[in-house]
Every structure is written in C-alpha cells, then in structure tokens.
Amino acid sequence: MKTLFQTMSELRTITIDEVAQHSDEESCWIIIHGKVYDVTKFLEEHPGGAEVITQMAGLDSTAEFDDVGHSKDAMEMAKEYLIGQLPEDEVPEVKALVPPTPAQPVAKPSAMKEFLTSSTFANIWIPTTMGIGIYVFYKCVLKSQAVSVY
C-alpha cells in the first residue's frame, strides 16, 4: 500500500504518452507539477463538476490547477490520487504569473494633466465654471434688456 508521503524517487515513472491514453471519464489521468494523478474516482466528487477535469484529462493541468487557487485541503486531497511522476526530461516548464516588465519606464503624467483628468476637476470645476458662465450671461442679458426698456 502506498503512503501519502512518498518521495519523488519512490513514485512510478509515467510518460506523457501514457498519460495521454487516459483521457476520458473511464480512465482520467492528469499531470500537475510533474506528478501524475488518476482522478477517475474523484470526477463525481469534484466541486466544479466532472467536465472541468475531463477537459484536461490526459494533459498537463498545472496552470489550470494553480489559476483556480485550490485550498491546502484540496492539495492534500490530491495526494490520495497520486500514482506517479513524469520523467525529468518530460516535465513541462510552468510559466510564472509575473506581469511583463515595460521596456522603458513609464513616465509620470504632469501635475496639470493629472489635475485635468482627475475626478475633482470633472466633478467640481467644470460645473462651477459652467454655473459662473451662465450667471454672467444671464446678468448681461438682463442688463441689456433693462437698458433697452428705458
């Protein structure tokens, strides 16, 4: 009987080609971080549904597994389905989720541009300026009408 704490050297070596042969609900194997898991019995228990896993059956699912952000409990539970490991030369390289660095430093906008594009300018200064403009226009129209009446 295998233990939950098998070392990588004790695990059976399984090739990617062999994993690819187990790509349906009858026999569903996936690869996560170079380890091979037979998750056939887990399909109906998976909280996201069987289809989530069967879409990745027979393939490397490392990125998808990591992207979901599985809990520590889920990672511990996965050990129950561990059946082997890929040969070192077949372990896919996992790309880190690091945003690309810009080629040149991003220039900080000028203080005036920041002010003109800020919500303060849009929400306070524009309506205030429009109000003053309307008031001045209204007063000019009233003065001109008052002058013409007399």
From TrEMBL:
Transmembrane segments: none annotated. Pfam families: Cyt-b5 (PF00173). GO terms for cellular component: membrane. Residues 11-87 form the Cytochrome b5 heme-binding domain. It is found in: Membrane. Keywords: Heme, Iron, Membrane, Metal-binding, Transmembrane. InterPro entries: Cyt_B5-like_heme/steroid-bd (IPR001199), Cyt_B5-like_heme/steroid_sf (IPR036400), Cyt_B5_heme-BS (IPR018506), Cytochrome_b5 (IPR050668). The keyword Transmembrane applies. One of its GO terms (molecular function) is metal ion binding. Belongs to the cytochrome b5 family. This is Cytochrome b5 heme-binding domain-containing protein. It comes from Caenorhabditis remanei (Caenorhabditis vulgaris).
